[in-house]
TrEMBL record:
The keyword DNA damage does not apply. The lineage of its organism: Archaea, Methanobacteriati, Methanobacteriota, Stenosarchaea group, Halobacteria. Residues 35-180 form the DDH domain. It holds the Pfam family DHHA1. The keyword Nuclease applies. It comes from the Archaea. This is Single-stranded-DNA-specific exonuclease RecJ1.
Amino acid sequence: MTVSADTVSESDTIPVPELEQKATACAKRLRAAERVLVASHIDADGLTSAAIAVQALKRADIQCEAVFANQLDAGEIKRIAASKYDTVLFTDFGSGQLDIIDPYVRNGDFEAVIADHHQPAMTHDDNPAFSLQYHLNPLLVGIDGASQLSGAGASYILAQALESDTTETDNRDLAALAVVGAVGDMQSSTDGLTGANAAIVEQGIAAGVIEETTDILIYGRQTRPLPKLLEYANDVQIPGITNNESGVAAFLDDIDIPIRSDGEWRRWIDLTMDERQTVVSGLLNRAIASGVPAEQVNDLVGTTYTLTAEAPGTELRDVSEFSTLLNATARYNRADVGLAVCLGNRDAALIEARHLLQTHRQNLSEGLQWVTAEGTTTESNVQWFDAGGRIRETIVGIIAGMAVGAEGIRDDLPILAFAEKSETKLKVSARGPQRLVRNGLDLSTVMQEAASAVGGEGGGHDIAAGATIPINERSTFLEIVDKTVGEQL
Ligand code: C5P
Ligand code: C5P
Ligand code: C5P
Ligand code: ZN
């Protein structure tokens, strides 16, 4: 394993030919609109999806405005219908709500165009009276929407179809945002992005906005002081390093890596290639010596993506830090700030986003501490915790994902996290291990069915899904989930 700055070869392939046709139809319909309402989801993928759509529409001279929602439920769609836009472009949601959107389209309330990657609620085959025609979703052409294409990726493919030959628009620069969205939805693994996502990366590289390198896979390469980077690394736990301030200091001293330069903290990006190699080798030796399993050791180095147009040392330069910055805005009702950053505001919006990031980080860290201290309750086939009002419902899913594999939390069982959404509603977030998904686990179906059975609603992806249920239905819901997961496996 070596840390290198080699970029992959340039290429200019079309992301997904199968999706191109659908994208062309969607683009044609959008061009016919006078103005478009872009409605999107309040997370990193949703924000980047909207930002890509807004820029592509503007470049095609189509007026638009963006709105965001936490969950696209019946009430939200009704509000959108009341907004008097004739054409609505749904990004990063919409497929899971086809059944609610379609009657509006049939009724002529608005025309819907959808660019999404969630499990569709129904198909043309289920319902012959189905009116909605403009639907771009990787799952419709056999591409996995949980790992091969994100909402931002779907939006990017639409942006490509919106390019105009006459004005020679080139939307490939928007690949940078598409990669932030995919990484924000956890679609990247040690080997980086794959499938349709990888094709988008190649376009971004060709356009000169993305660099793909092999580097240490620890969160915070651009902005964290080196000792904090190692101390806070929670993806790979290394005894004597993880959460051990003095251990980190001794380790860096031991391998002769200065932690300051001209009185300033050095960050990972300030290290020379040789120094990075020294740190990586040192960490690998430590990990192996303390018995960290080989597959976890291997996850310490992998494919990373850098946005080359962004200033070095900022959150925006690293796609992973960028996506966290966006979650810090949208999941706290400040999607406007995140969108402005995506659209290029590097002044007031970025300052505000950084401010929100402090709170988000604090909340993630406190939430994770609470979950690991509290532990989970284990049923036959799932484990769960109920954070009540302690964790914000918009980030309980991120915390559930981070908790898996942390001290005392099993990584071989799906995890369900509950948090209060309101006085009457409970939010559920579910995350499943990759191995179980390969063996038939589909949390999207589980959430959808179990939520329906108790008068709630749910959906998502096979590996990560969620639901909203009445607050007093937790135990019935859990019973159904436990049983359904058992049947799937
Ligand atoms: O609504 P949306 O599709 O954006 O949400 C995806 C969620 O699923 C993200 O919070 C992401 O963390 C989670 N996910 C995951 N593991 C994956 C894919 C997605 O935890 N492999
Ligand atoms: O917030 P977001 O879902 O984008 O975070 C993605 C991943 O980045 C988390 O699963 C976590 O491992 C890491 N992270 C972190 N420290 C933070 C924020 C995020 O380690 N302060
Ligand atoms: O909120 P969380 O990150 O747990 O969401 C995981 C996935 O489940 C997301 O893709 C989200 O869009 C989906 N979800 C859903 N219906 C809900 C709640 C979440 O489809 N009521
Ligand atoms: Zn998404």
